[in-house]
Amino acid sequence: MLYAAPFVLVVAVLNALQMLVEAYPGGPPLSACISMVPTGHGASTLTGTTPFSITTNTTFYTAGENIEVTISGARFVGFFVQARRRDSGSDTNTAVGTITPGNTNIGKTLDCGGGTDNAWSHKTNAAKTSESAIWTAPTDDKGTIAFRATIVQGPSSDRYWTGVYSANLPYGSPPDDTGDMSGPTTDPTTGSGHVVYGSSLLILLVSFTVAAMNN
Ligand SMILES: *[C@@H]1O[C@H](CO)[C@@H](O)[C@H](O)[C@H]1NC(C)=O
């Protein structure tokens, strides 16, 4: 009994510290689906350029395609990621596509806005430096999308970044491969090559004519 009271006190203090480290150790609540702001964390104390980046293994997407999305840059404890439409006039508040966490010991999915598995978050607040998932694109054209992330850097719960975006991923083929259906026939170097060839033939013909007249 003599040792029980201090032990209980230590456990209580550790629990309080744990709450300070992260307000949602098991992942964000569904109420955060639209804003993606971790309300239980208070205002962010971080300013300047985020040390984190959200990268993908392709620069565009097609219907139903699987794309790898990665959070990296620095140590972090919590994350919340969704693919969002980016075109002006489109619904930029709804998660699109579905996500499969790369590591299900660290990540889990959420069903945001009546969808299924359309958001990805941490499920434990263990420190990590890089996490990946597979995003499966919708089966129809949703225009340009980007991945939007909220990342809790820690160690305290008010050290987080929100509105961290990947590069935009347009729907369809990369810009360099579109529009040029005519191929090399319109290539100006090929065109000038023909001109040079034509001139040489003309000079050759004139030479023969001059030579023939001289004989
Ligand atoms: C991107 O990664 C996914 C998942 O690993 C893979 O299925 C897909 O083929 C990759 N895409 C490219 C363009 O490498």
UniProtKB/TrEMBL annotation:
Residues 18-184 form the Reelin domain. Residues 1-23 form the signal peptide. It comes from the Eukaryota. The keyword Signal applies. The keyword Signal applies. Keywords: Signal. GO terms for cellular component: membrane. PANTHER family: CYTOCHROME B561/FERRIC REDUCTASE TRANSMEMBRANE, REELIN DOMAIN-CONTAINING PROTEIN. This is Reelin domain-containing protein. It comes from Strongylocentrotus purpuratus (Purple sea urchin).
